[in-house]
Each structure stands twice: as C-alpha cells, then as structure tokens.
Amino acid sequence: MEIARELQEISLDLSRGSCVTVGNFDGVHNGHRKLIGRVMAKAAALGVPSVVVTFCPHPLRVLVGPHTPPLITDYEKKLDLFEALGVDLTLMLRFTREMAAQEPEEFVRRVLVDALHTRELVIGYDFSLGKGRKGNFELLQRLGAQYGFATERLDPVIINDAVVSSTRIRDLIRAGDVWDVRPLMDRFYAIRGKVVRGMDRGGKLLGFPTANMEPRDELMPKPGVYATWVQIDGQVYQGVTNVGFNPTFDNARLSVETHILDFDRDIYDWEIRVSFVHRLRDERKFSGLDELMTQIRRDVDLARQILSAPDARL
C-alpha cells in the first residue's frame, strides 16, 4: 500500500481513475470495513486503484482542542489495518483550521478530481465534509455529475440492534465491556506501547512479574483486571492486565501492568501489544500482600479458562 501525506507525494498511477472513500475511520470498525470493501469491489470492477482519504490529526483535535476523546486506533495502526484490507493508496492529509473552513466544492475539485481522478466515491450514511458540513450526499452527487464521478452512500451496519459507530465502541471500552467490542470491530480492542520500569513490586513482592506499559495516545479501558492476549515480537501469550491505580499501594497515576503467563524474559524497552478480551473484576484495595497474591492466583486461573475458549482466540 502506498501512503501519501501530500497530494504531490502520490506516485501511484491514477491516470485511469480511482475509487475513493473519505473519512476519519477511528477504530476501523465493521462500518468502515464495509465502506472500504465496497470501494475495493468497485475498483476491481473498473480496474483502477482503491483509495482511502483520511486525516491527521483527527479533526476534533483541531476544532475542539485537547479535551477530545482519546483515539480508538492510533494513526500507525490505522494504516496497518488499511493495508491488511488491501487498500492500494491511503492519502492521510494534515487537517487544519484552514481545511475546516474550505468550501466542499474546493476539496472535491482539488483532491477528488484533480489529484485522485475519482470515478466512484463511496461514503457513509452520516458523512459530510467542508465548511459548515455542507458537503453532504446530495451536494456530492451534484458535484459528481459535474465532474464525472458517481457517489454512493451506504446504509449503517447494525449489530445487536444498534448502529456500529466509533462512539458506541468508545463507550463500551470506557465501561469495561471489552468482550462486546469484538463483534463491532472483528477484533479485540488493543493498545500498544513500550515496556518501561515500574515499581518492581510484581516479581519481588508478589511473585507475579509484570510488564509495565507506556501506552500511546489511545483510549484506556475502565480501570480493572482483564484477561488479555499479549503480542511480543511476533509471538502471542496469555496475560492478566491491571489497568488502574493499584489501590493496595496507593498509586497516584494510572498504570497498565500485565502479568504474561508462562513467560520469563527481559523485555524492557520492547514494544508489546495487549488485546483486551474480558474484564475479570474491579480494581480494589486489599488488606495486605497475602490477600492480594491469593486474588492474583484466582485471576490467573480465570484468565486461563477464558482465553482457552474457542471464541476468545485472537
């Protein structure tokens, strides 16, 4: 997959046209996958490249500021997912206030027509672009008729009687309902980050060493203890992950600590990926080390049972 961050960087041959979708695609959930799949099918039928146009930073980060919700999927992972789906070109444009103030007609002419030579545009049911969100389906249809491309709008994807959306997924993760996220994304919710030194309590005090993550700018699940899959250097291990403040030790800052089952290697400074499968319990304060260690053993046993189930496979 080719990745371009400026129109001038595009080297893919688009002389015969392209099939395009545009959006933020936070989470690359099943609604997004349906859009991209439709683009790829149309591109294959026409014999032209498939193109995803997206934005960095997320427009809300620019328009609202730092108090916007964390991302479900960071930009690097988003690109990985696009590539895995078979997209030919991702155009990740830098979003600015100037772009937000741009009339939709200008974006269509400059990006979709002059740069991408769009023949087919596929958008989501709630898509709009440009100043005042005026670039809706009806306007895009009219512009398409003017410039020679067709516009198709897809209906929302419904799972468990509700629309699949980034907001719904974000709410589930924040509530700790990570098991319910998988049907909406076709994968478990995951975060990744570098392993850093913690307080050295897990191994020395408790006999359960932990990998302490330095997560990226991604959404954190509700504090608690989770059964997880841990990916390290291409290998997958079972794990028990605590997200929270370690109330037994009165930590002041949020931490993500994972006890990796049947694993004994030094992985400081390594990047790991933790996929959240099922929430085991709330984080709570214990009377002492013995009670905490007993609970951790129970957590490990329960995690093994959950992760051994066929529908819990990564």
From TrEMBL:
EC number, as in UniProt: 2.7.1.26, 2.7.7.2
Record domain Riboflavin kinase: where: 184-308
Keywords: ATP-binding, FAD, Flavoprotein, FMN, Kinase, Multifunctional enzyme, Nucleotide-binding, Nucleotidyltransferase, Transferase
Membrane-crossing residue ranges in chain numbering: none
InterPro entries named in the record: FAD_synthase, Riboflavin_kinase, Riboflavin_kinase_bac, Riboflavin_kinase_bac/euk, Riboflavin_kinase_dom_sf, Rossmann-like_a/b/a_fold
Recorded metabolic or biological pathway in which this protein acts: Cofactor biosynthesis; FAD biosynthesis; FAD from FMN: step 1/1; Cofactor biosynthesis; FMN biosynthesis; FMN from riboflavin (ATP route): step 1/1
MF GO annotations: FMN adenylyltransferase activity; riboflavin kinase activity
Catalytic activity from the UniProt record: riboflavin + ATP = FMN + ADP + H(+); FMN + ATP + H(+) = FAD + diphosphate
Pfam families: FAD_syn, Flavokinase
Highest taxon above the source species: Bacteria
Protein role: Catalyzes the phosphorylation of riboflavin to FMN followed by the adenylation of FMN to FAD.
Recorded family membership: Belongs to the ribF family.
Protein name: Riboflavin biosynthesis protein
